[in-house]
Design goal:
By secondary structure, the chain is of the alpha/beta class. The protein contains ten helices and 45 strands.
Length: 529
């Protein structure tokens, strides 16, 4: 390429290198003018950058010339700002800007790249590629002061944005990203995005990696489809930090832009769908994690893992996964927004150390279903989930439900005890429901008192001390036997013979057993308070 510029008839340098093609000459001039350089044919089939129709030299510029413009291009015309704005252009060769500093604004739309784009450790103001066909984007440690926009682009061999720094927004909405030779579609470990990472309707084929990444505002995967069925993870994002919310929710399509949380009536809705495991362990989310209507298609070995996640609100409202596990071990949540139909069954839900402050069920979620939810999460007896649920229910003013939860805990614990302790547990359950239904004690006392009074009314006791005895009263005699602490003076004033002695002994034992059960329940209640 000739470095010297050609000379115009008036003696002024044009600044044009001598060996530019007509397409490159037009691009060079448009760059100095800051105007859009559009080489589209006008036929949508021909102009489709993802189609098979060939683009000839009239639409082709060399990647080397593009790099020259961006790294050391000519000055802008008077009163203009230089910028590279291309539409419908084919870039031949590898666009290599590695380590360079690019000051001009860069925008390419409906363009076709023959080879990969290399931007490692490059610095830009703003880069916008829209609906472009790119074999691969290699941009580790790239830095932009403004946006990096890649909407509707298609990447045949993945994207690498490891340790990249995006000043404002990263846009991947409606992009299609195929996997590289390592099975990764997006490698963005250590990525930092100043504001939003928008990937609505993204189509990812391979592992989408965001390990230890930071997003200043929201991360949106509304309507995205992540597919990596033959590996463990489709989304691998442990230690992800999001300033506001993570959205894995439906998106409305059929409009100019993907709709948000509430698509307009008549808009076709595409749910978030993940074919493969999800790992969000140790994530921090400033506002919420929203899984409304999400679909997780897991194998038996794959997981939706939210271990040790921290967020003020978890909206666990997905379609119930048919296979795989949901793991919330160690997670800390403020509001748990959920519904009964979203949780998996026994053996597929793990919540050891999971804590939440409030329950906000969406739709019917009975106490029986909530207890089944706890049982599904604890294949082996663990008191902590029951105690946490009881605390949350009590804090919401549902004291009766809280007592039912604690009673369910005792019944679950009973199944782990040896036979003798289990028998005593059944006795406490039948008599006073482990102290959570103390009124039962009065009912049992009344029944035993009435039955024994009726039976002793047919007996003929003899006085124990001659004429010094109170008048015979079957009711007072029965009550004196049943109450192990209070002495009414009747049990010792009369002697019984034969079977009546055995009946009296049984009543004494029942009285002591009832009193012991009441005392054990009271001790449990006092210990809990």
């Amino acid at each position: 390429m000739t470095e010297g510029g050609a000379v115009a008839p008036d003696g002024l340098e044009t600044g044009l290198p001598g060996d530019l093609s007509p397409a490159e000459t037009g691009m060079w001039q448009a760059f100095r003018d800051g105007s859009v350089y559009d080489l589209r044919h006008g036929d949508p089939v021909v102009d489709d950058p993802h189609g098979r129709h060939p683009w000839g030299p009239e639409r082709t510029v060399r990647a080397r010339v593009v790099c020259w413009l961006l790294l050391d291009g000519p000055p802008a015309l008077a009163g203009r700002v230089s910028a590279l704005k291309l539409i419908g252009v084919r870039i031949a060769g590898s666009l290599d800007l590695a380590g360079g500093t690019v000051d001009p604004y860069v925008e390419m739309e409906d363009c076709r790249f023959d080879e990969e784009i290399l931007l490692p450790e490059a610095r830009f103001t703003t880069v916008r590629l829209e609906n472009c066909a790119v074999p691969r984007l290699e941009a580790a440690r790239v830095h932009t002061e403004g946006d990096l926009h890649l909407p509707r682009c298609r990447f045949a061999r993945g994207i690498r944005l490891s340790d990249a720094r995006i000043g404002t927004d990263l846009l991947l909405s409606q992009a299609v990203v195929r996997h590289d030779r390592h099975g990764r579609s997006l490698s963005a470990d250590g990525l930092t995005v100043g504001q939003d990472l928008q990937a609505d309707l993204l189509e990812s084929h391979g592992e989408l990696g965001l390990r230890s990444s930071e997003v200043g505002a929201s991360l949106s995967l509304r309507g995205a489809r992540l597919a990596n069925p033959y590996a463990r993870l489709a989304l691998n994002a442990p230690q992800l930090s999001v300033g506001r919310a993570l959205y894995m929710t439906p998106a409305g399509i059929g409009t100019a832009r993907p709709a948000g949380n509430t698509p307009a009536r008549g808009t076709r809705v595409q749910p978030f769908e993940c074919l493969g495991g999800v790992r969000l362990d140790d994530g921090r989310f400033g506002d919420s994690v929203d899984l409304r209507a999400a679909r997780f298609n897991l194998t038996a070995e794959q997981e939706l893992s939210l271990r040790r996640v921290q967020t003020p609100e978890l909206r666990f409202l997905p379609v119930r996964p048919r296979r795989g596990r949901v793991v919330l071990s160690g997670a800390r949540v403020g509001n748990l927004v959920d519904r009964a139909e979203s949780w998996p069954g026994p053996g597929r839900l793990h919540m050891g150390g999971f804590t939440y402050e409030n329950l906000v069920p969406q739709g019917p979620f009975t106490l029986e279903q909530r207890l089944e939810w706890l049982a599904a999460a604890t294949p082996e007896y663990n008191p902590e989930p029951y105690e946490l649920l009881a605390t949350v229910l009590r804090g919401g003013g549902e004291d009766e439900d809280a007592r039912e939860v604690l009673l369910a805990k005792q019944r679950r614990r009973r199944e782990t005890l040896p036979p003798a302790a289990k028998l005593w547990g059944y006795a406490q359950d039948v008599t006073v429901a482990y102290g959570y239904r103390p009124a039962r004690a009065a009912v049992w006392l009344a029944v035993l008192w009435a039955a024994s009074t009726l039976m002793f009314s047919r007996s003929r006791p003899t006085p124990a001390r001659g004429d010094e005895h109170p008048p015979w009263s079957p009711a007072l005699f029965s009550l004196d036997l049943l109450l192990p602490v209070i002495d009414l003076g009747h049990a010792t004033a009369w002697h019984l013979q034969g079977a009546w002695q055995w009946l009296a002994a049984v009543l004494i034992l029942l009285g002591w057993g009832l009193a012991t059960a009441v005392a054990a329940g009271a001790t449990r209640l006092l210990g809990r308070s």
